[in-house]
Amino acid sequence: MINSKNIDMKEDTPLNQKSEQLKLDTTLNENEKLTTNQGLKINNNQDSLKSAERGPTLLEDFILREKITHFDHERIPERVVHARGSGAHGVFKLNKSLAKYTKARFLAEEGTETPVFVRFSTVAGSKGSTDMARDVRGFAIKFYTEEGNYDLVGNNMPVFFIQDAIKFPDLVHAVKPEPDNEMPQAASAHDTFWDFISLMPESMHMIMWLMSDRAIPRSFSRMEGFGVHSFKFINEEGKVHFVKFHFKPKLGVHSVAWDEAQRISGVDPDFHKRDLWESIEKGIFPEWDFGVQLIPEEDEDTFDFDLLDPTKIVPEELVPVELVGTLTLNRNPDNFFAETEQVAFHPGHLVPGIDFTNDPLLQGRLFSYTDTQLSRLGSPNFHEIPINRSINTVHNNQRDGHMRQQIVKGKVSYEPNSIGGGCPFQAMMKEGGFSSHEERISGTKIRERSKSFVDHYSQAKLFYNSQSTPEKIHLQNALIFELSKVTIPEIRERLVGQLVNIDKFLAWRVAEKIGVEVTELDFPNQSIPADGNRIDLQSEEKEPEIKISEALSMENTVKNTIQGRKIGFIIAAGVDVGASNDLKMKLEGKGGTVELIAPSLAPVRTNDGSTLLSKHSLTSTASVCFDALYIAGGEDAVKELLIPENRHLVLHFINEAYKHCKAIYFDAGTEPLYMNSNVGARAHEDPAIITGEDAEGTDRFIQAIANHRVWDLELDRNA
């Protein structure tokens, strides 16, 4: 049989001929059929085997198990996904009892504090990749409860790419570096990822999130966390509520610009990890409000989407998020490998009162995670590693195995027994014994997708329509950047075809920039305006019940604190130390962090004869590593900053911060600096630019930092 591997694509093959080469390779393989590793032809590679259309996934599904088993064991010992991570210890405090909804003890009594370990991560990149990749961020929490460990394994985005776990290996294979050349690392801007996505309409909601600013957070402490799936709460009476989990950061949800992320990756690829570590060391503890969306079991079918569909959210306008607790991270790991690297999460680590739904992605994860730990940590005894140990003493009849640590005395390792007095005994439900929720399951054993999962575009529209104008522009530019890296025209065309179903102006804007021809067929009943102004249309696709959700836009996030913000002070010999110290004290009094930047790391003589030691030089850092800049005054200091060897460096700092819409405070006497920068005569037009003549400059500077950025001025500045 002829195989495509026998046909070489020469290095000098023109790009416009690669598509023809692809067609040739496809033709040669047109008779090949998808099989299992045993050669069995597969009839359906899209859906796991279920007990009914919306029933649970069956253990019998050997195709799903073979596929995920192979996937889970592909890399040793680095995690296949979520390899690059940062972690911290902390505490979860319950502020409002949920005993009405769940019998989980750590959610029952107000004031209960539960120790936790949290691991944040990127998904696609290897352990050595940058923190600043455009990517989903993992947000996994291990609660060490008195009833055993409970793991909430979530992300910073509330939905996922796929609806069924059988597609997870395909998704990750597509987004990982391409197997022929191992490129690109920690990036989705390449052929295989977008080839997969262009053929998977169910991914388009997640693509809107991934291409949004949510994919490049300012820090872990400024991103949301979500449980993604619908879970079940079960109370003492057996009453069931569906539940969606939320973690809302106290500091608000904020991001960095894409251009800024690229610079940070070069200057400090550990930017997020460093921020988390240093914040905790300084006592600026990251905090999140823990919230739940609760839906009575009888209301499961009242929405225009399926609660079991992991590509859907429950809009907060339909079911508000009830804030019931606080998650605080207050201690760094003592050893990164022993704790952050060896921590093992699993959505199947439950406590009584919390249970699964029949979400087919969740059902597959229940198999995958244990299998992954067996490969990565090398032993069924991974639960005995200190970071993974339950605070309860473990009593069962499991014995031996690689790396066994617990020494169990006696001769009994089975149940039931009489020699050991029958111990350990099964726990009754009233004693905290876990019992799965009883539900009636009936139907025909099938391998297909529920019809209630078919709508793929309505919530993608909801997300896009809910974004502010700057956020929409960033999302458009992200798609343009990503798809410009795709070398196969057919893939770009298919993606534009998907975008048409979300927003026609978005599709047109992207198509215009990536060389996809727009036809009347693509955009029925629409005239594309020459000036790019949006024209609203009635979509033929299903319209969401909620047209705009304020919770989906970062424009509506918290903007009342500078806690944890990093402000760079640019100083030089002769600096006005009095004014600088006054501002430093006020900023630090509000929770900000001040770091000094000077022409070199040599001691800086101030205007009163004292000396200052800077943490950075103008060549060892960049404006992208700071949330705001202060240009310190002093006649001699300004003169030194204006000498040729310093001038271009200082102006670059200022221009770059200005480009990225950040707050900049020019102290008295620094007019030559801002007048020679891009700020220039427009300084008074920008609410984030403060000059020494402003009597309320300090207060305005603090508020400008709290506001994060002035994104609305972005296009005008870069015009």
TrEMBL record:
Matching entries from Pfam families are given as: Catalase, Catalase-rel, Catalase_C
Positions of the catalytic residues: H82, N155
Q: Which GO terms describe its biological process?
A: hydrogen peroxide catabolic process; response to oxidative stress
Q: Write down the SMART domains for this protein, in alphabetical order.
A: Catalase
Highest taxon in the source lineage: Bacteria
Top-rank EC class of the record's enzyme:
oxidoreductase
Q: Where is this cross-link: 3'-histidyl-3-tyrosine (His-Tyr)?
A: H346-Y369
Cofactors named for this entry: heme
Stated EC number for the protein is 1.11.1.6
Q: Where heme is bound, by residue?
A: R79, R119, F168, R365, Y369, R376
Q: Does the keyword Electron transport apply?
A: no
Which InterPro entries does the entry link to? Catalase, Catalase_AS, Catalase_clade2, Catalase_clade2_helical, Catalase_core, Catalase_haem_BS, Catalase_immune_responsive, Catalase_large_C
- Give me the Gene Ontology terms describing cellular component: cytosol
**Residue ranges of domain Catalase core in the record:** 35-423
Q: Which reaction does it catalyse?
A: 2 H2O2 = O2 + 2 H2O
* Gene Ontology MF annotations: catalase activity; heme binding; metal ion binding
Record flagged with keyword Ribonucleoprotein: no
* Keyword tags: Heme, Hydrogen peroxide, Iron, Metal-binding, Oxidoreductase, Peroxidase
Outline what the protein does. Decomposes hydrogen peroxide into water and oxygen; serves to protect cells from the toxic effects of hydrogen peroxide.
Give the UniProt family note.
Belongs to the catalase family. HPII subfamily.
Q: What is this protein called?
A: Catalase
Source organism per UniProt: Chryseobacterium taiwanense
Gene from which this protein is expressed: katE
